[in-house]
Amino acid sequence: MSIRIHRYHRIALAVSLVAVAIAGVSSLGQNAHKQTPILRTISFSIAKEYKTLGELRSDANVVALVSVVGVPVDSNRLGNIPTVDVQLQVEKVLAGIANVGDHITLVQIGDPSGHTTVTDPIPPILQNGKRYVVYLNRQFPDQPQMMITGQAGVFEAGSGTQFIRLGNASADLPKNPSLDQF
User: Fold this and answer.
1) Are 132 and 154 contacting, i.e. CB atoms less than 8 angstroms apart?
2) Which of 6, 60, 72, 83 has its Cα between 20 and 30 A from that of 137?
3) Which residues of 39-56 are buried (b: 16+ CB within 10 A; e: fewer)?
């Protein structure tokens, strides 16, 4: 059974998860300052399953064909959760408000150094120089960064006009859609 949670509820869920993670680290006791917790694996569940690309598009602020122009070597931290600011350049706007040539900062969960493993359904960190169709949304209106919609909205360019869905979120979405299906 899929759980339908609106975009703003997902934000509250994400903030709650970070608060729980921070509380867990701070409750290690008096010896917490002597120990550094090592995070090796992160598991996530997705709050919404998408059945069609149309459903995914309706939750996205921008759908675009992009190329990755920068992936940092190190990750940032949101509490104990590693994140990476991937730099994208828009090649073609498929829906939403963006312009060809725009640069977008995509915040992805993960660690490009390989020190932390993030389990499915989170898609892998996008790779420098590759092309993708991405469904993006702005989690916080006052911030320029964007995130992948429902962790399901990322498709890597394959051969010709075919694309490959990355990650295992929303298994009902097409695995190999063509560019005109987005």
Assistant:
1) yes
2) 72
3) beebebebbbbbeebebb
pTM: 0.71
CA torsion 13→15→18→24, rounded to 10°?
Answer: -80
Listed residue (126, 180, 128) closest to 155, CA to CA: 126
Tens-place pLDDT, residues 106-134:
988 777 766 655 555 567 788 999 999 99
Contact indicator for 63, 182 with CB cutoff of 8 Å = yes
The stretches of the chain forming alpha helices (DSSP H) are: 7-26, 53-59
Alpha carbons 5 and 1: distance in angstroms, whole number: 13
- Strand-pairing partners, residue 135, are 63
Identity of the amino acid at 86: V
**β-strand partners of 64:** 93, 134
